[in-house]
Each structure stands twice: as C-alpha cells, then as structure tokens.
C-alpha cells in the first residue's frame, strides 16, 4: 500500500528525512484552520503510520478528510488557496491514505470504500488505484 504526504507543506522535509517523531511533534501543534490544517492533518497521518501508531493515524486521516471535504463544500472559504480541482485531488489523497490506515486497522471493506471514493474523484492520481489493486491481491491470497 502507498501513502502520500503533501511535499511542499507541513513538515514535509522532516518526513522526507524520515524524522517522523520531529514531524509529529511539530504537526500536533499546527494550525487546524483552512487548507493548512488539512496539510498538517494529512502529513500527521503519514508520520503516525510511519512510526506504527495506527490509532493516531486513523484520527489524523479522518481529520484530513473532514477538513478537505469542508473546504470543498464551502469553496468560497478556500478558493483563495486553490481551485476546486486541486481540492478534489487533495481529497483523493486523503481518502486513499485513510484507506491504508483502515487496512492496517483490519477494516478491509472500509478501506475498499475509501479507495473507490478516491478513484471516483477522477483526479488522475494513481495512488488509490494502486492501493485498491493491492487490496484485491491481498484478499485473493488470504
């Protein structure tokens, strides 16, 4: 399964350097507002997954999905940062990441739903398709 962090925001450099504990420390105190709050929650989800804390990763991924959905529903609030297409792409990333967390937390059906929802966003990112295929592969060998 693959996860994606937002590379130009929210402790991305620490994640690239595999300094996950440092990223977690900074991201736990990050802003929770607007698109920056989404970036922080998404990258926090990734960092928690990398250190093996699936419970906290679940909370962070759920928060990331909720934040980006809110911005999409209230685009007048968020459009100063990005277009609706960009928010759709971010939603697909968040859903796919949450799907990975759901898989790790032994919820394969919920993971499948997240991957399929991410694919339905039609953003062209490959991560949810790769994850859905891997989920199907793992299910067929179980």
Please tell me about this protein's structure.
It is a single chain. This protein is mainly α and 142 residues long. It is 73% helix and 0% strand. The chain has eight helices and no strands. The protein has helices at residues 12-16, 20-28, 34-50, 54-73, 75-78, 84-104, 108-120, 127-141. It is globular and about 40 Å long.
Number of helices: 8
Q: In CATH terms, what is the architecture?
A: Alpha Horseshoe
The CATH class is Mainly Alpha
Main beta-sheet strand count, sense and barrel state: none
Q: What structural class do you assign from the helix and strand content?
A: mainly alpha
Net shape:
globular
Number of domains: 1
Residue share in β-strands: under 5%
Q: What do the pLDDT scores average to?
A: 90
Q: How are helices and strands ordered from N to C?
A: HHHHHHHH
- Enter the CATH topology name: Serine Threonine Protein Phosphatase 5, Tetratricopeptide repeat
* Total DSSP E strands: 0
Which stretches are poorly predicted, pLDDT < 50 over at least 5 residues? none
Overall helicity: over 70%
- CATH superfamily annotation: Tetratricopeptide repeat domain
From the N-terminal CA to the C-terminal CA, the straight-line distance is: 16 Å
Rg: 14 Å
